[in-house]
Amino acid sequence: MGFGIGAINTLFLYTNFLTDQYYGLVAFLLSAANIMMPFMAFGVHNAIVKFYSTFRTKNSINSFLTLMLFLPLLFIIPSVFIGYFAYDSIVDWLSNENQIVENYIWHIFILAVAMAYFEIFFAWTKVQMQTVFGNLMKEIFHRVCIMFLLFAVYFDWLSVAQFINALVAVYVLRMGIMQLYAYSIRFPKLKFQKLENQFSILKYSSLMIIAGSVAMLILDIDKFMIGLMLPDIEQVAYYSVAIFIATVIAVPQRAMHQIMLPLTAKYLNEKDKVALEDLYKRSSITLLVVSGFIFLLIILNINQLYQILPEKFTGGLFVVLIVSLAKLYDNSLGNNNAILFNSDYYRMVLFFGVLLAIMAIVLNIVFIPVYGIEGSAFATFLAVFIYNTIKIIFVKRKFNMLPFTIGSAKIILALIVLSLAFYFWDFPFHPIINIILKSGLISLIYFMLIYKMNVSDDISLQIKKRLKL
Question: Membrane spanning segments where (predicted)?
């Protein structure tokens, strides 16, 4: 639902209600805030998930949660002073190619803090195995609010500058609501008592800043650098549309990841390797089936979809194709990230991640001036592909587990066959009717193949339930 609303916003409302320049500005501000967010959170949202289940007494739990609430201030407070005294230098750097950015520097900071504390309060609920409301707030709430704000711009109730201010306020409100919900599940009792493993927690949190930064860099560095390096900030808008279409593939992973994190941490803390390996393989095959289906719907309908969008937004076909492949590979890893970041080997993975983040930046610097947004997409694909391959090899060596099975090969074969069979074929109707009919046909054939090949007991059971077999 969240991505459905996001699709309406990204593909139709932003593209028609805002100018290309202001759409590019909004995408740039959000990308910059996402890159800053891991620093503002200080790795606390990861530390809550990893360490919460290790505490047994009320005093130790309260002391731990108190530490988690105040730890991000170690970065946020100095950032305020740096931002205040170095404001002119920061403005000159960020608005070097696009002067429109200079009036919105503090917006980036406020967005980053709001995003950081939202993730912290979401983690607060995850460890209580309560993820539904958090997912609602993370995926749906702000998108619905932005939809209303965009209509307010269309009806001239808001100026574009007021829209951007209101957008920041939406993220702050989302954080506040998540805080109230987290406290309703477990109200914090402030207790400033030193923990036995406090040094380990602080070290882990500090290293998770790097981990989060690597993840966010790979996700958002492309849009940020396009805004920095290309003179037309409109290019960020065109790229964002293509990226959003491809990012739909990540929806199942994002949803499943919320519950896989605490489960994986629990199995690792209990040293239950059998349950861990079972979760690794099952999450991989399930995500590959579902994300593979979304991949097919995107790739086989992309030409028709581009006929509906404004023509200037339709130049990102290569971006959609290459980033879709990267997202599909990412999903096929199952709970690989959860295993690595909650295990004792997270330091080595962070080392690889930093190298790959540097590589992503260098590749963007090389490819963006020559190939524009297509060069940025290719740089992102290379970084994600290499990073994921290293993570698979690392888990294999340290845990002797692979996410892939014979079923994985069957799914990939089905995806290749269906892609080749349907890409060059369309119904001779209006694009929307064509998309509906073609998607229905692909869905029927794909899930029949998945059911017949019996690649996953979980998926087969769900198909039986839906069809009442």
Answer: 22-44, 64-84, 104-124, 140-157, 163-183, 204-230, 236-252, 285-306, 312-329, 349-371, 377-395, 402-425, 431-451
- Which run of H or of E encompasses 219? helix 198-229
203 & 311 share domain: no
d(CA 280, CA 286) in angstroms, rounded, equals 10
Which domain-ending residue is among 200, 232, 264?
A: 232
Instruction: Extract the tokens encoding 136.
Output: 């609602």
Q: Distance from CA of residue 28 to its chain's centroid?
A: 16
Residue 411 · residue 450 · CB < 8 Å: yes
The total number of structural domains that make up the chain: 2
CA dihedral 75, 76, 81, 83 (to 10 degrees): 100
Q: Are residues 260 and 122 in the same domain?
A: no
Predicted TM-score of the model (pTM) = 0.71
Helix (H, G, I), strand (E, B) or coil at 298: helix
What's 425's DSSP letter?
A: -
273-300 pLDDT, tens per residue? 888 888 889 889 989 999 999 999 988 8
Q: Which residues of the chain fall short of a pLDDT of 70?
A: 53, 56, 87, 93-99, 195, 197, 211-220, 231, 233, 312-316, 468-469
| Per-residue tokens: 217 | 């860099």
* Residue 366: domain span: 233-469
Residues 237 and 223 in one domain: no
Tokens linked to 168 = 């920041």
Task: Kindly give the interhelix angle for 251-269 and 273-308, rounded to the nearest 10 degrees.
Answer: 170
337 plus 406 within the same structural domain: yes
Residue linked to tokens 């998108």: 143
> How long, in residues, is the chain?
469
